[in-house]
């Protein structure tokens, strides 16, 4: 399939696909006229790349993991790397949960103050 079709089917921009190729995350063949052609499995690969980016992984990390993930060749090193990335994400989630809990406490306190007619001058610009 051509680059435009892959972009449409995978839900990404053509520019993103070119970037993935520059980073070594995606490969294509070329027609005699120089147009990129992608295999059918490229759709799933682009979706995986998007998921890994969404998880906060950098291009360099993804390029190291992707060949093993795509081929299904699981090594102890791959498992260690994936586990470390999952642990990093878990830590970020804990931090976000703590931040949300603090905001909930502030919202509860502020709602009580608002009901009592007290307002913070800083928020209202007074």
From TrEMBL:
<dbReference type="Pfam" id="PF13411">
    <property type="entry name" value="MerR_1"/>
</dbReference>
<dbReference type="InterPro" id="IPR000551">
    <property type="entry name" value="MerR-type_HTH_dom"/>
</dbReference>
<dbReference type="GO" id="GO:0003677">
    <property type="term" value="F:DNA binding"/>
</dbReference>
<dbReference type="InterPro" id="IPR009061">
    <property type="entry name" value="DNA-bd_dom_put_sf"/>
</dbReference>
<keyword id="KW-0238">DNA-binding</keyword>
<protein>
    <submittedName>
        <fullName>MerR family transcriptional regulator</fullName>
    </submittedName>
</protein>
<dbReference type="InterPro" id="IPR047057">
    <property type="entry name" value="MerR_fam"/>
</dbReference>
<dbReference type="GO" id="GO:0003700">
    <property type="term" value="F:DNA-binding transcription factor activity"/>
</dbReference>
<feature type="domain" description="HTH merR-type">
    <location>
        <begin position="1"/>
        <end position="68"/>
    </location>
</feature>
